[in-house]
Amino acid sequence: MRHLPISSDLFVENRAKLAKMLPPNSLAIVHANDVLPTNADGSLKICPNTDLFYLSGVEQEESILLIYPDAFEPKHREILFLREPTELLQIWEGQKLTQEAATAASGVTTVKWLKDFPQVLRDCMLGADQVFLNRNEHRRAAAVVQTRDDRFLLECQQQYPLHTYRRLAPLLHQLRAVKSGPEVDLIREAVSITKKGFERLLKFVKPGVTEHQVEAELAHEFISNRGGFAYTPIVASGKNACGLHYIDNDQVCNDGDMLLLDVGSNYANYNADMTRTIPVNGKFTERQRDVYNAVLRTMRASIEGAVVGKLHRDWQHEAQEMINEELVGLGLLTKEDVAKHTRDQPACKKYFMHGLGHPLGLDVHDVAPVDAPFAPGWVLTVEPGIYLPDEGFAVRLENDILVTENGPVDLMADIPVEVEEIEALMAAGK
Ligand SMILES: [Mn+2]
Predict the structure, then answer these.
(1) In the beta sheet, which residues pair with residue 164?
(2) What's the 274 CA to ligand 1 centre distance in angstroms?
(3) Closest Cα partner for 123 from 110, 105, 134?
(4) Which of 64, 267, 282, 380 could form a Cys-Cys staple with 81, CB 3.0–4.6 A?
């Protein structure tokens, strides 16, 4: 692990919160993610299962967490099952978690090897009334590949057909949407690494650099600081920025163009998600500045609007109405266009066609209860944009915020965003 150790208190508390939500005499089981194959004998580096991490701090492949709060045997109330670190495994794959290390990381006192899982599962299943199993229930998940959780669910139902099976995901979505203090601190660390990356770019970007060189600068800064890309970075100069998911990052940044950077670092599996748009030559044209400030005003007002109790769809609609007005000011829409605006047919749709933001946490598009209003402890991104392919540029700005009882807290308040700041920092870097 590149990140510094995290106190096991976080995971102890997370399990206690889940235990409180489970009905009497219930069992919950969560599996690690698969190590995904590539070509030939290749495989990707494991992407830790975020639910397993949330409940245990364990990032190691093949691990299983079993939670049975009402177990008769106290040692069966929380159990971690891990790969046994044999000598052969150590030689080929390096250090694996020992039982002691797993207990220190997770706070789970009963740690067993995977070979013990079938028997312990049988003991627990025969005592439990209902079983909560996990699935990826993210609204936009493309579930084309079976996960370990999916395969286990089928095996378990086949072996124990008379149990009552229930969905664990809605409980975890409810819990994970609300970030605790230590979680917000980890997100703040991811934000701070992202800030360092952006400040490095303000010194680096000039006409003639390529998008992939910009990406390489970020990789250096993120990885040196114990982070890494939270998602494939979008480094899009000129009209490339009008392709929302442009990730080729293979073009030259030209004099006079804007450069859109949708980049974020992760830290300890928690993510930052930032977008900035800067002039390649360090100086905004008047038109670029006008569009930029329209987006900046909308971002600031939308941050203020992210209050407890707000529904996402209303928050989105308020931003669309602001962008409508800005587009009139920019000469892109007429007052007649705006008069025809409806929720289903937003007037701004041609220039601002995507969502205003999303929950952020252990996943970049984090889980949250379906259609629930914003609540204290939610972390959200706020990312309005205006896309002008005919003029060869786009502006999107994105900050990460924390929803609190006392109003929104901008976690990226100290990352440069004003036109004058950006110009001054870019000039200072020359
Ligand atoms: Mn985002």
Answers:
(1) 130
(2) 7
(3) 110
(4) 64
DSSP H or E stretch at residue 126 = helix 117-127
Helix 169-177 vs helix 9-21: crossing angle, to nearest 10? 130
H-helix or E-strand spanning residue 212: helix 211-224
What is the 170 CA–ligand 1 centroid distance (Å)?
Answer: 22
CA–CA separation, 264 vs 244, rounded Å?
A: 16
3-state secondary structure of 76: helix
Q: How far is the CA of 200 from the centre of ligand 1 (A)?
A: 21
210: helix, strand or coil: strand
For residue 271, how far is its CA from the centre of ligand 1 (angstroms)? 10
User: Which amino acid is located at 344 in the chain?
Assistant: D
- CA 223, CA 197: separation in Å to the nearest integer? 10
The rounded distance, in Å, linking the Cα atoms of 35 and 33 is 7
Q: Where on the phi/psi map is residue 40: left (φ > 0), alpha (ψ -120 to 50), or beta?
A: left
10-residue mean pLDDT profile of the chain (430 residues): values are 95 98 97 96 95 98 98 95 93 92 98 98 95 95 91 97 97 98 98 98 98 98 98 97 95 98 98 98 98 98 98 97 98 97 95 98 96 97 98 98 98 98 94
**H or E element that contains 92:** helix 87-93
CA 369 to chain centre: 15
Domains along the chain with CATH numbers: 9-176 (3.40.350.10), 181-429 (3.90.230.10)
